[in-house]
Design brief:
Distance between the termini: 62 Å
Radius of gyration: 21 Å
Order of helices and strands: HHHHHHHHHHHH
Low-confidence stretches: none
Mean pLDDT: 90
Structural class: mainly alpha
Helix content: over 70%
């Protein structure tokens, strides 16, 4: 590269090697050059975002995100896949609120443009799963579980065995106030007469993992009764 004889595809490989070794500072100028050469490829932006994040350069990260937003909102580039890619980048870089915004937009576009298709079901499953993680990161357990629940409903074919429970448990385990979420579930159940054994089982597993066995038992008993 120093001799100027690498093609862009080889520079991309060099960046991947640097990333894999945690040498993100050295990857930054290479990614900047790739963005100049390929301004419409969003994955170069998100890789540079991560490099700024890992090298603790929040101002550069914020400026790059603003640049990406401006560029991709023009010329018909604000597509579902680009929204989701930018959302993934924001989540990785500790910007969950921005990630939620982009995931919501991507989901709305997917539902509008590809209703009932196999591809749409997969995208709804994947986007909702990542949206749930972003909501969990900002402490909104209700929204996080709603997102996972929607994924289960619209794309049940992608859930094998206990995968649904595993993903619910994953987002619930990040909750700082799980008792408040349980109170919400109890109130909704009393009001609507509807409940979910999958959600109750996941709650029981999270409580058990926290050694709060009394609360875990209660949730497992409810799960059994509902089944």
């Amino acid at each position: 590269h120093g001799k100027g004889i690498l093609e862009d595809q080889d520079i991309n490989t060099l960046v991947s090697w640097l990333e894999s070794r945690g040498r993100n500072a050295e990857a930054i100028p290479l990614l900047q050059a790739l963005i100049r050469n390929y301004p419409d490829l969003i994955h170069y932006y998100t890789r540079l975002m991560r490099a700024y994040h890992y090298t603790k350069q929040p101002q550069m990260l914020a400026e790059l995100l603003q640049q990406a937003e401006k560029h991709f909102h023009q010329g018909g580039r604000w597509t579902e896949s680009n929204m989701a890619e930018l959302a993934n980048g924001c989540y990785t870089c500790g910007l969950p609120q921005k990630a939620i915004q982009y995931y919501d937009e991507a989901l709305s576009l997917c539902k509008r443009d590809e209703p009932f298709s196999h591809r749409a079901n997969y995208l709804l499953y994947e986007r909702n799963y990542h949206l749930a993680k972003a909501y969990s990161a900002v402490g909104n357990t209700i929204k996080a579980v709603d997102a996972i629940s929607e994924a289960i409903v619209v794309a049940p074919g992608y859930y094998q065995g206990n995968q649904a429970v595993t993903q619910l448990r994953e987002v619930m385990s990040q909750s700082q106030n799980l008792d408040a979420y349980v109170e919400h579930v109890d109130k909704e159940s009393a009001k609507t007469g509807k409940d979910s054994p999958i959600i109750r089982k996941a709650l029981g597993l999270v409580y058990a993992s926290r050694n709060d066995h009394a609360r875990a038992i209660k949730q497992f008993e409810l799960a059994l009764a509902l089944q």
